[in-house]
């Protein structure tokens, strides 16, 4: 820990001077060990690892150690085997090994780590050289399933961090895009790339982001969603404090607006921060449609949010305490429908909400074909049988269904899940104290949201604190002619867009 | 990064603190004490508040944005300052608790006659506590959200336009009133809350136009009160208005939508957000004052104890009338502090300045 602390300190000192070199993890690799760097010792380290191969080329007097499924065989043959096999004498071998892609290693830890990360270790005359031949098979770039759009690009991130990096680099052809390599997970040693655009991003936020990542103490990281929970400002909150996306275009838009990205190796999602509550309501589609249509869709999502959190709770409040609010024409229908139900409205509503959640969860876990069956069966059970059996009123079915459908309108699955959970609390409060309970519940949510921050910036930005200039890209999707400034939340000094043309 | 309050924040905070439970009974108070066209007295009250705000602004300018506690402690010994702090804190904290109690009692009367009001009050106080301990910047953020949650109700006044009778705004001015002094005080109590601006000095950006923001907030509150009172004076006859305890709530009962038969209950619930900020700001001010005495204690701890004490005290008045009486007693103190504190501080600062010039 002392080394980490010292390095962190030196990092922040450099940051103050404007000399920014993110060398934290690689610096750790330079820690010397007294262990000998011999073939026997390295093979001893990999004892019982049948996937570690040792190959000898006797004519050149070398041994190569590598993990076959982590390397690109073509590259391995072309860069190592061919030149070394063709070497006539020891001098030829030394000449080959003197090339810049052969990196001399003097530390056994570094050699072991190199082999594990897709390098080949070449042993020659007591020396060890490492060559990057990384190239395992990975899933191809496919369409995003959770963030699908109708218009716009259809490619999405994959599990390979290098592919993800390339997807970003392909879109940002600028040397201002900086990439920092960090490592997380004591056992998995997962690579995390931190991306930001110099001269747009606020470097204090980058400092904070890097600091949080380097402070993560965990055995393993499997996914971006898991990763964010370690860098969240408030890990116990229900609300996500970093935006997670599968879409390269969304990720790039975040970068350009002055935010920071984290690409976690092995995860098809990219983490972006700082983020605000309202960012979870915008979709890439908004920008690919005409602004008026984008605005209408965005407004629809906010209406959906209100419906999701309040519809069932309002039903419970009104049918439990405030019958006077129901219009005369509707009260007869409602009374007739409710007369068969033996439970109080709050129990009735909870029963239905839980059933809807069960259906949703079952639908998400089962294969597509069976999932459809679940939908049909669930629809019949809830839509007809439950009403006929007197378990629920049909007006509640409408409320619960509208509420459930609305929750899926919210583009971010993580936020949608949080909101669905909050709804249960509001239903209970409405069941206890009617409208007053509902308002108290909303009050609790607002108070909680007001205390939240993302990378130290206000989570409710630009609503509270109010930055009117940002409203044109939050509550509506203004025409591109007026979307000329970067969000206030990122605290950038480069507020005007299109200012990087150099 | 330490946040500071800007002009818009000050505007929202003051407006939200000013408008609380007072608005429910305000038209009745105007009618009862000032008779016909009693709403005119609101202009006088707003002008007095504006003068008081000017005094507060003078303190800010003379003290160069210094905390009032620092000004006090620099000039007076602790044995004098601390008991004074205790009295102020008690008055402010009691104001917060009694406002909460009045709101829950009104709510109980209108919607939950059989429920125990202290349970409501406990939940309301808990909500207030959770907000207070997050600090003034979170309070401002919450106020901003809450103001948008309640402001949409303002245009609802337009639904009464056809029901207003011009003849009710007679050419009689302030006739059939009584005890004008007491009436003035009662109306004034609805405007209180702006005096907490004194405690915001250390949190305000140097370039903030404090005076303008505070005045705009006062004008906005005045306009809100004026619109409500004008509607009530045009909608009800003077005699009716004197009899109805909370004309504003009764007014809500006349609002009907095609999809909601009687919306007053729902609309009244929304007003909890207005009341909440009033409660929060008074408790926050009290806790801040108490913390000057117990500097080693954490703010959350101080707030908890202060709120707990006044919560227990608020058990004593059991019915609305009693709460009203208690609240008017506490309001005397608030009124005295609103004027007394700035005058006293101006005196201290002038003395300091005079000393510096003659040393």
Automatic annotation (TrEMBL), chain A:
Keywords assigned by UniProt, alphabetized: Membrane, Transmembrane, Transmembrane helix
Domain of life per record: Bacteria
Gene Ontology BP annotations: spore germination
Spans through the membrane: 299-321, 395-414, 426-449
A GO cellular component entry from the record: membrane
Pfam families attached to this UniProt entry: GerA
InterPro entries linked: Spore_Ger (IPR004995), UPF0353/GerABKA_families (IPR050768)
Protein family: Belongs to the GerABKA family.
Name of the featured protein: Spore germination protein
The species this protein was found in: Paenibacillus roseopurpureus
Lineage, uppermost ranks: Bacteria, Bacillati, Bacillota, Bacilli, Bacillales
TrEMBL record, chain B:
Location(s), subcellular: Membrane
InterPro entries xref list: Spore_GerAB
Membrane-spanning intervals of the chain: 6-26, 38-60, 80-99, 119-139, 145-164, 185-204, 216-236, 266-290, 302-320, 326-351
Membrane topology recorded in Swiss-Prot or TrEMBL: Multi-pass membrane protein
Main location group: membrane
Keyword annotations: Germination, Membrane, Transmembrane, Transmembrane helix, Transport
Keyword check for Transmembrane: yes
Entry GO terms, CC: membrane
One annotated GO biological process: spore germination
Keyword Transport found: yes
Source organism, top-level taxon: Bacteria
PANTHER family linked to this entry: SPORE GERMINATION PROTEIN A2 (PTHR34975)
Family: Belongs to the amino acid-polyamine-organocation (APC) superfamily. Spore germination protein (SGP) (TC 2.A.3.9) family.
Name of the molecule in the record: GerAB/ArcD/ProY family transporter
Organism: Paenibacillus roseopurpureus
Lineage per the UniProt record: Bacteria, Bacillati, Bacillota, Bacilli, Bacillales
């Amino acid at each position: 820990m002392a080394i980490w602390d010292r390095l962190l300190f030196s990092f922040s000192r450099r940051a103050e001077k404007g000399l920014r070199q993110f060398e934290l993890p690689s610096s750790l690799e330079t820690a010397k060990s007294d262990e000998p760097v011999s073939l026997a010792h390295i093979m001893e380290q990999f004892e019982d690892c049948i996937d570690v191969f040792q190959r000898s080329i006797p004519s050149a007097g070398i041994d190569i150690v590598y993990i076959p499924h982590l390397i690109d065989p073509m590259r391995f043959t072309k860069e190592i085997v061919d030149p070394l096999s063709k070497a006539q004498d020891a001098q030829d071998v030394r000449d080959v090994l003197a090339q810049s892609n052969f990196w001399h290693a003097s530390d056994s830890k570094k050699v072991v780590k190199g082999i594990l990360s897709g390098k080949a270790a070449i042993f020659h005359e007591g020396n060890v050289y490492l060559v990057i031949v990384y190239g395992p098979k990975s899933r191809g770039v496919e369409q995003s399933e959770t963030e699908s759009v109708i218009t716009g690009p259809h490619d999405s991130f994959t599990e390979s961090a290098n592919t993800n990096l390339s997807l970003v680099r392909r879109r940002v052809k600028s040397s201002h895009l900086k990439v920092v390599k960090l490592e997380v997970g004591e056992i998995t040693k997962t690579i995390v790339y931190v991306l930001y655009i110099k001269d747009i991003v606020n470097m204090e936020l980058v400092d904070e982001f890097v600091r949080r990542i380097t402070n993560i103490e965990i055995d393993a990281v499997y996914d971006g969603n898991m990763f964010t929970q370690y860098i969240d400002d408030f890990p116990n909150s229900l609300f996500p404090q970093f935006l997670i996306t599968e879409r390269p275009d969304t990720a790039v838009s975040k970068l350009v607006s002055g935010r920071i990205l984290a690409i976690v190796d092995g995860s098809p999602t990219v983490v972006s921060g700082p983020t605000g509550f309202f960012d979870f309501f915008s979709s890439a589609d908004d920008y690919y449609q005409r602004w008026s249509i984008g605005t209408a869709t965005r407004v629809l999502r906010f209406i959906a949010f209100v419906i999701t959190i309040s519809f069932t709770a309002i039903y419970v409040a009104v049918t439990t305490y405030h019958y006077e609010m129901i219009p005369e024409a509707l009260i007869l229908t409602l009374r007739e429908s409710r007369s068969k139900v033996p439970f109080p409205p709050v129990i009735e509503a909870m029963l239905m909400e839980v059933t809807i959640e069960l259906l949703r969860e079952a639908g998400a876990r089962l294969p597509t074909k069976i999932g459809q069956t679940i939908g049909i069966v669930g629809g019949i059970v809830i839509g007809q049988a439950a009403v006929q059996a007197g378990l629920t009123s049909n007006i509640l079915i409408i409320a619960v269904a509208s509420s459930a459908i609305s929750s899926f309108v919210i583009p971010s699955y993580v936020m949608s899940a949080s909101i669905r959970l909050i709804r249960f609390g509001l239903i209970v409060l409405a069941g206890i104290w009617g409208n007053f309970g509902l308002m108290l519940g909303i009050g609790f949510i607002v108070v909680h949201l007001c205390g939240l921050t993302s990378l130290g910036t206000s989570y409710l930005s630009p609503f509270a604190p109010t930055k009117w200039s940002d409203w044109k890209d939050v509550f509506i999707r203004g025409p591109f002619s007026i979307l000329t400034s970067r969000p206030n939340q990122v605290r950038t000094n480069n507020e005007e867009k299109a200012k990087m043309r150099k | 990064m330490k946040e500071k309050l800007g002009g818009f924040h000050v505007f929202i905070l003051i407006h939200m603190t000013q408008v609380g439970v007072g608005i429910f009974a305000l038209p009745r108070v105007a009618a009862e004490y000032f008779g016909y066209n009693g709403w005119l007295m609101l202009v006088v009250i707003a002008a007095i508040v504006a003068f008081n705000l000017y005094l507060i602004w003078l303190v800010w300018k003379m003290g160069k944005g210094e905390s009032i506690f620092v000004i006090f402690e620099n000039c007076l010994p602790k044995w004098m300052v601390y008991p004074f702090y205790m009295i102020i804190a008690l008055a402010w904290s009691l104001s917060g608790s009694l406002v909460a109690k009045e709101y829950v009692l009104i709510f109980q009367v209108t919607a939950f006659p059989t429920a125990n009001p202290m349970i409501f009050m406990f939940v309301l106080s808990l909500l207030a506590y959770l907000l207070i301990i997050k600090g003034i910047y979170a309070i401002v953020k919450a106020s901003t959200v809450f103001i948008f949650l309640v402001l949409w109700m303002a245009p609802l006044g337009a639904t009464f336009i056809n029901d207003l009778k011009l003849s009710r705004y007679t050419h009689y001015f302030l006739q059939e009133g009584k005890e004008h002094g007491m009436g003035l005080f009662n109306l004034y109590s609805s405007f209180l809350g702006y005096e907490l601006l004194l405690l915001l000095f250390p949190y305000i950006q140097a370039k903030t136009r404090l005076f303008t923001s505070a005045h705009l907030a006062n004008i906005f509150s005045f306009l809100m009160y004026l619109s409500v009172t004008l509607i009530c004076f045009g909608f009800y006859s003077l005699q009716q208005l004197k009899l109805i305890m909370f004309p504003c709530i009764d007014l809500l009962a006349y609002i009907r939508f095609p999809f909601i038969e009687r919306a007053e209950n729902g609309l009244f619930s929304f007003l909890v957000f207005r009341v909440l900020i009033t409660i929060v700001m008074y408790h926050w001010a009290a806790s801040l004052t108490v913390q000057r005495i117990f500097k080693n204690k954490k703010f959350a701890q101080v707030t908890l104890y202060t709120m707990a004490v006044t919560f227990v005290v608020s058990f004593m008045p059991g019915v609305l009338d009693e709460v009203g009486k208690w609240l008017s007693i506490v309001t005397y103190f608030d009124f005295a502090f609103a004027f007394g504190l700035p005058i006293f501080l101006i005196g201290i600062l002038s003395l300091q300045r005079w000393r510096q010039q003659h040393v």
